[in-house]
């Protein structure tokens, strides 16, 4: 048994030694790495610009002995930069950009992205680092309002115009919505492939030279609309026009009111004509410190007249209003096909003077790493910033630096959910929301994507969300799909009964129409009040 124990100990020591050697080897393979275990002062340079008053702090990640770079105050601008010993050539083989970010207070409104800066010859200084400092790549999470994305932006110089243009990755992944540590990885490959990973899982793949993956495309269009060409004055692009031969019917009275008094209505029995709806509060007393000269004449506050509570009404009785059967509204001629319609005008295409071709993007070298953010929340922690030329090196760092922390945080989160008794429902909700977010990414729903995502996010934050609400979200999405499918059906022309003086010829209108919205609202109002005008109430305080 003693021999077996010694053998096991030797195996353990050998395994541990191998792990340490692997970590050391990976560290040597990294072009740049900062674990922030040591204070950042002297290594990272804080901007002296007046706008950047946010205080950086060398702080432990909540629940760990691991240190990071912490954003300490909300509603502040922050800027800090680290110069590299040697510029990194992004055109040479694979390049991996990786770092950890943790929203310790949850997602509110803040950015946690990094900027990979061009050499200082491009016109910037570390002490003057700000949002105008020239960068090659901007990468990382950003959330506020409708913005929720992991940015990847390449800033490239157009060799024809000499202008630097930001090219944004289309449909980037969303930011994880929790308080856990997450590791963000961008892998740039020599075959122009770009991969974005979150926690080691590929969330987005694209190609730098594909017009479907970057906006605007890195390679410009060969032709562009002629900016000097103007639409001819006689060009008619109206598909439909008011019928010039239509005539308003003789019996069409535009001056007839929408509502008239119901002459058949009878004052309810027991109506108290001489009683006001409100009376002075008999229990109210004038405050002792009330000064009539300074405060004015004191009046008791009003309360509902108790006599009116058992009566059908108080005060002057007036006949209720009803729909006027003679009301027709403003007459508009129906729309007909425009015989002079020429189609939608657009300028002719001409060769793009700024067009060029590339075999691969022109990446400016990376000479520094900067964090320049404006955030409305505190508690954002940055850690384990890495640049490497081998994606296996990045994976090794994820496994040894990020994953142990994430496992601990995930277990703690699970324990808290179980303690709150919401684990089963929470798991069900997560699966449903994952499906809903996939619905929002369907291409033909792109027009409604922001509204759908905003609605899902708002409901996701409610801990007591019921299955009924979840079902309603699905119904909304399915309704949008239904409308998209059937919205192309041509509708018959109708007249819009309006009270405006001028007609809007941009909408389909006819000489006979449907029930106006005002009439429907009035009908609902009468149904609610039983045909009698509602009693107005007023309360002074």
Automatic annotation (TrEMBL):
**Which cellular component terms (GO) are annotated to the entry?**
endoplasmic reticulum membrane
User: What is the scientific name of the source organism?
Assistant: Gossypium anomalum
Q: Which InterPro entries match?
A: Calret/calnex (IPR001580), Calret/calnex_CS (IPR018124), Calreticulin/calnexin_P_dom_sf (IPR009033), ConA-like_dom_sf (IPR013320)
Query: Which cysteines does the record link by disulfide bonds?
Result: 109-144
> Lineage in the entry?
Eukaryota, Viridiplantae, Streptophyta, Embryophyta, Tracheophyta
Ranges that cross the membrane: 465-488
In which family does this protein belong, per the annotation?
A: Belongs to the calreticulin family.
State the membrane topology: Single-pass type I membrane protein
Q: Name one Pfam family in it.
A: Calreticulin
**The protein's name:** Calnexin homolog
């Amino acid at each position: 048994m003693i021999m077996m124990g010694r053998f096991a100990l030797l195996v353990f020591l050998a395994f541990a030694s191998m792990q340490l050697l692997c970590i050391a080897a990976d560290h040597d393979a990294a072009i740049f790495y900062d674990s922030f275990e040591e204070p950042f002062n002297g290594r990272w340079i804080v901007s002296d610009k007046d706008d950047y008053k946010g205080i950086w702090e060398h702080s432990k990640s909540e629940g760990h002995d691991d240190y990071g770079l912490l954003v300490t105050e909300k509603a502040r601008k922050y800027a800090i930069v680290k110069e590299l010993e040697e510029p990194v050539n992004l055109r040479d083989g694979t390049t991996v950009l990786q770092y950890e970010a943790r929203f310790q207070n949850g997602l509110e409104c803040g950015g946690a992205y990094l900027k990979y800066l061009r050499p200082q010859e491009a016109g910037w200084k570390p002490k003057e680092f700000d949002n105008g400092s020239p960068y090659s790549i901007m990468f990382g999470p950003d959330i506020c309002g409708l913005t929720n994305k992991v940015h990847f932006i390449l800033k490239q110089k157009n060799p024809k115009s000499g202008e630097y243009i930001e090219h944004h990755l289309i449909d980037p992944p969303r930011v994880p919505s929790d308080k856990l540590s997450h590791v963000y990885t961008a892998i740039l490959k020599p075959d122009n492939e770009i991969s974005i990973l979150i926690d080691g899982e590929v969330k987005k793949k694209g190609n730098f030279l594909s017009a479907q993956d970057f906006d605007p495309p890195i390679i410009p269009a060969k032709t562009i609309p002629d900016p000097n060409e103007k639409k001819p004055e006689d060009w008619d692009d109206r598909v439909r026009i008011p019928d010039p031969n239509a005539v308003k019917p003789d019996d069409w009275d535009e001056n007839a009111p929408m509502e008239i008094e119901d002459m058949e209505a009878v004052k309810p029995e027991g109506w108290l004509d001489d009683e006001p709806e409100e009376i002075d509060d008999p229990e109210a007393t004038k405050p002792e410190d009330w000064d009539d000269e300074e405060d004015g004449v004191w009046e008791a506050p009003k309360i509902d007249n108790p006599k009116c509570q058992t009566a059908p009404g108080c005060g002057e009785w007036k006949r209720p209003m009803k729909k006027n059967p003679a009301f027709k509204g403003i007459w508009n001629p129906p729309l007909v096909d425009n015989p002079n319609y020429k189609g939608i005008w657009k300028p002719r295409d001409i060769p793009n003077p700024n067009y060029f071709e590339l075999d691969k993007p022109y990446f400016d070298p990376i000479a520094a790493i900067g964090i320049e953010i404006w955030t409305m929340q505190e508690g954002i922690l940055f850690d384990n910033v890495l640049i490497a030329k081998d994606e296996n090196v990045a994976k090794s760092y994820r496994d040894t630096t990020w994953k142990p922390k994430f496992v601990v945080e995930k277990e703690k989160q699970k324990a808290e959910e179980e303690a709150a008794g919401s684990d089963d429902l929470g798991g069900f909700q997560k699966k449903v929301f994952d499906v809903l977010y996939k619905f929002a990414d369907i291409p033909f729903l792109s027009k409604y994507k922001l509204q759908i995502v905003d609605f899902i996010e708002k409901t996701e934050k409610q801990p007591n969300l019921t299955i009924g609400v979840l079902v309603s979200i699905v119904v909304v999405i399915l309704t949008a799909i239904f409308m998209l499918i059937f919205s192309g059906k041509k509708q018959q022309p109708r007249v819009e009964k309006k009270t405006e003086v001028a007609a809007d010829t941009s909408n389909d209108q006819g000489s006979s129409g449907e029930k106006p919205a005002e009439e429907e609202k009035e009908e609902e109002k009468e149904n609610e009040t039983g045909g009698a005008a509602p009693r107005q109430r007023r309360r002074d305080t």
